[in-house]
């Protein structure tokens, strides 16, 4: 028996916990012959074995061997969950306790501070049945008596955050990227009545909104109040200097370009703010003018295409910061954003945000980086714009009275064609809801009906290998 393997077969790791990876490696009964196989053939196992060598503190802390599947070392406890070895620092494990002594039952607020936990804390009793871990502590927080038992279920041991960014309701959730063809076939429409009163229809709508970043509500009563009702079904209104809700109508000499009858190019709203609103609603009350069609583009799809076809341009736009401003007598806002933001902590280097809003750009004439790299930046930006404006990507429709579009402001670029106000009228009522509120609503929708949430999917595109679509993964079905 090799020395490195001995701990494997000796103590706590015998039956349940080791089976998954031993089986995978054909090591179900570790033996001399198997241990002598060249290690280079099994780099993952080799790594796992290295992790396994340890000094057992179970006797010292618990006065007996640790229960099966648990390893107790000096400053942490190790478990194998789903074939994966996970270590938990005692202080952090104690910190994660959500029992009634530690967390108020009603407010769910903590009754201790992280730094109240003594660094010398350690377990004095441990139970583990493969599903739930129970720990009694030595040197617990002052005031916590011997009756205090910390219990952790499998879910919290796997992921302690309430709505982790990469879950299918988190801010780094995978999205279903779309182009014009896909939207022509897969727009999600829900009636106002169902959206407001049928929980399943609402959950389904939220699932589509989380995946595609755009949905439509129809058959809305003809009232200016409705945009607020539709918005607050998802979350509280986001107030801005435009008011809790606002109107887009043709107004002479408007201060904001959205209020005129000339065409308005692709943009995102309020990029001059520190926290631009996550979601936007536009409820059509009148649209009898010629023109005035709404145009939408999935900026994540455009960014993926750019990355695939012009990687240097993509790279340049992760560095180019553009300035945005709203500069009037009454309100002065400004901010700066890189055109493309990546999640660098993610091995897949997922795109986290696209920030693109030319009508609200501000001068960048004094920016040294922009000066130094302008030729490259200019070319990259022009390439990105040409992708955004391709007909293939643009989804166009003319909203009719009684229809409302809900879209992710920080993903779906919107624009509108010019319209003629001499004949007919155009009136949209708008509102914003913050991203935080929607992430919460996505999660509560999933809690309310997990089956429906997971079952609700966008139909895969007819042509899976469309241009720039290297893998089906880009469509991010979850
Ligand atoms: Zn507790």
UniProtKB/TrEMBL annotation:
**Location of region: Disordered:** 459-478
What's any GO biological process attached to this entry? carnitine biosynthetic process
What Pfam family is a match, any one? GBBH-like_N
UniProt GO molecular function: 2-oxoglutarate-dependent dioxygenase activity; metal ion binding
- Keyword Calcium applies: no
Q: Where is the Gamma-butyrobetaine hydroxylase-like N-terminal domain?
A: 82-140
Write the record's keywords in alphabetical order, separated by commas.
Carnitine biosynthesis, Dioxygenase, Iron, Metal-binding, Oxidoreductase
- Domain TauD/TfdA-like: residue ranges: 210-432
Q: Indicate yes or no for the key word Cell inner membrane.
A: no
InterPro entries from the UniProt entry: AlphaKG_dependent_hydroxylases, GBBH-like_N, GBBH-like_N_sf, TauD-like_sf, TauD/TfdA-like
> Which coenzymes or cofactors are required?
L-ascorbate; Fe(2+)
Q: Could you give one GO CC term from the UniProt record? A: mitochondrion
PANTHER family named among the record's database cross-references: GAMMA-BUTYROBETAINE HYDROXYLASE-RELATED, OXIDOREDUCTASE AIM17-RELATED
Family stated for the protein in its record: Belongs to the gamma-BBH/TMLD family.
Q: What is this protein called?
A: Gamma-butyrobetaine hydroxylase subfamily
């Amino acid at each position: 028996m090799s020395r490195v393997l001995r701990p494997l077969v000796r103590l706590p790791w015998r039956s349940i916990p080791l089976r998954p990876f031993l089986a995978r490696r054909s090591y179900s009964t570790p033996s001399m012959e198997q241990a002598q196989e060249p290690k280079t053939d099994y780099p993952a196992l080799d790594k796992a074995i290295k992790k396994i060598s340890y000094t057992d503190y179970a006797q010292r802390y618990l006065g007996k061997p640790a229960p099966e599947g648990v390893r107790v070392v000096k400053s942490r406890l190790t478990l194998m969950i789903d074939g994966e070895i996970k270590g938990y620092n005692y202080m952090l494990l104690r910190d994660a306790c959500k029992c009634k002594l530690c967390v108020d039952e009603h407010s769910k607020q903590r009754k201790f501070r992280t730094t109240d936990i003594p660094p010398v804390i350690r377990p004095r009793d441990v139970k583990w049945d493969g599903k739930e871990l129970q720990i009694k502590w030595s040197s617990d927080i002052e005031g916590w008596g011997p009756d205090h038992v910390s219990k952790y279920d499998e879910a919290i041991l796997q992921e302690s955050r309430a709505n982790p960014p990469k879950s299918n309701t988190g801010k780094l959730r995978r999205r279903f990227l779309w182009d014009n063809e896909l939207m022509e076939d897969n727009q999600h429409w829900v009636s106002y009545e169902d959206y407001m009163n049928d929980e399943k229809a609402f959950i389904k709508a939220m699932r589509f909104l989380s995946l595609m970043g755009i949905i439509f509500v129809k058959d809305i009563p003809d009232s200016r109040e409705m945009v607020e009702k539709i918005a607050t079904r998802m979350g509280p209104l986001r107030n801005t200097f435009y008011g809790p809700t606002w109107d887009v109508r043709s107004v002479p000499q408007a201060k904001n370009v959205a209020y005129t009858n000339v065409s308005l190019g692709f943009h995102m709203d309020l990029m001059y703010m520190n926290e631009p609103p996550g979601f936007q609603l536009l409820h059509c009350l009148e649209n009898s003018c010629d023109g005035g069609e709404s145009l939408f583009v999935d900026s994540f799809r455009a960014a993926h295409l750019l990355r695939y076809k012009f990687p240097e341009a993509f790279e340049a736009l992760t560095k180019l910061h553009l300035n945005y401003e709203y500069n009037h007598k009454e309100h002065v806002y400004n901010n700066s954003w890189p055109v493309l933001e990546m999640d660098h902590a993610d091995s897949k280097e997922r795109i986290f945000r696209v920030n693109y809003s030319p009508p609200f750009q501000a001068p960048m004439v004094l920016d040294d980086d922009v000066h130094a790299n302008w030729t490259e930046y200019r070319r990259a930006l022009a390439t990105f714009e040409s992708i955004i404006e391709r007909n293939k990507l643009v989804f166009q429709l003319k909203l009719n009275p009684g229809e409302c579009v809900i879209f992710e402001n920080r993903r779906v670029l919107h624009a509108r064609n010019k319209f003629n106000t001499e004949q007919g009228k155009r009136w949209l009522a708008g509102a914003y809801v913050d991203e935080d509120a929607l992430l919460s609503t996505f999660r509560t929708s999933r809690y309310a009906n997990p089956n429906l949430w997971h079952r609700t999917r966008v139909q895969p595109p007819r042509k899976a290998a469309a241009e720039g679509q290297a893998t089906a993964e880009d469509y991010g079905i979850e």
